[in-house]
Amino acid sequence: MVPNYAPMQIVPAKGVGSRLWDVEGNEYIDFAAGIAVSVLGHAHPLLVETLTRQANCFWHVSNLLVNQPSIELAERLCHLTFAQKVFFANSGAEVNEAALKLARRHALDHFGPNKINIVAFDHSFHGRTFFTVSVGGQEKYRQGFGPNPDGIFHLPFNDSGAITDFFEHRGDETCCVILEPIQGEGGVRPVTKEFAQTISRLCKQHGALMIMDEVQTGVGRSGQFYMYQKLDVIPDILTTAKGLGGGFPIGAMLTTDSIAQSLAVGTHGSTFGGNPMACAVANKIIQLLCESDLLSQVDAKSRMLITGLERIGQKHDLFSEIRGEGLLIGCELGGAWKDQARDILNSCMKEGLMVLVAGTNVLRLAPALNINDNDLQAGLERLEKAVSRLSRDRDTA
Ligand SMILES: *Cc1c(COP(=O)(O)O)cnc(C)c1O
To answer: Please, which pLDDT band fits residue 396 given cuts at 50, 70 and 90?
Structure first.
């Protein structure tokens, strides 16, 4: 494989719930969930059953036909949200690509060819296709691939003054604003309610679309099915992927009836989008999350996790801030631990705990939403051991 990743020397062989075993039989507790993907843990029996049942029917028919799982999933997503129309694809980047194309086309249809500006925020992440890296707010991902598309502006995150000023001058040429309710890759930074509402108001005033990228925050991770439901705003377009298939690739773009009219026959497409295997699994995940008390337990699990983190943090003078929502938690490293996130991750692996980082200075935790209290506590113990081990190694070095 091309060397774009730097994978660890561990090869998983089997998973059950929030535990994983590698090919050598070592056990891990999973606080990473495949980057906020495996919302119901590994090998959930009802998901395995659903997938197997669909596998025994048919796997793929393309968009020359519809299929029952995709119709059912579109209905569920509309029922759960503001949306009236859904476009299916296979990943977060693809549904953001669709959202950005839709915003440009919608502006062309209603306002003519000059309304092309896209506003995004510093440190944001929207995927790795050429359009989505161009829009994302991390220069290192966007450069070195030739000229980026025009009309893209990056503003400071959570700065209402800056975006108000921008809209005063360029609002009428702006077709959309795209934001994450919590900047995930950018360091687990939640949007303020006030900023989200400012964006919503400016978009309405200037005929621009508000795109909520809920690829990481969606499907219950914040404690609400989608996090916009906590912010008292209603986006025009919402994108969702990661957790939606619980590990089976799927993404969806949600929008209103009237905006959807700009994706007329032939304007956009995807061979695998709406794949019945992916849609069958996503239906089951939504059913399991919404017809149980799992979502209402997210806050309690979150508090338990944060309490444990605070205790470890104080003991080892580890964190300068712990932030996030629900089960997407970022721990900013402070003092002597500054920029040591990768070392901590590696040490956790040695203790049998999988965690994530977001940049060099934030430890990111995104366990399965159904992780049990036992696994949560055991994971915290392993984190503490990993930190103690690092401290010891440093003292002797
Ligand atoms: C992961 C992520 C993406 C990209 O999703 P892929 O499935 O990797 O293409 C886009 N936006 C956000 C907020 C993400 O966290």
So the answer is: confident
Using the atom order of ligand 1, give the atom closest to the CA of residue 92: 5
- CA-based angle 150:153:158, to the nearest 5? 160
Supply 121's token pair.
Answer: 């925020």
Most ligand 1 atoms within 8 A of CB, residue of 38, 100, 125, 179 to mutate? 125
Which pTM does this prediction carry? 0.98
Q: What's the pLDDT tens digit per position in 48-82?
A: 999 999 999 999 999 999 999 999 999 999 999 99
Phi, psi (degrees; rounded to nearest 5) at 63: -90, 15
Choosing from 88, 121, 216 the residue with most ligand 1 atoms within 8 A of its CB, the one to mutate for a pocket test is 216
Q: Which residues contact 273 (CB under 8 A, 6 or more apart)?
A: 63, 87, 88, 89, 90, 94
CA of 278 to the centre of ligand 1 (A): 17
Ligand 1 site, CB within 6 A:
91-93, 96, 125-127, 180, 184-185, 213, 215-216, 241-242
Give tens-digit pLDDT for 99-153: 999 999 999 999 999 999 999 999 999 999 999 999 999 999 999 999 999 999 9
Distance CA 154, CA 135 (A): 8
How many CB atoms neighbour CB 21 within 10 A?
Answer: 15
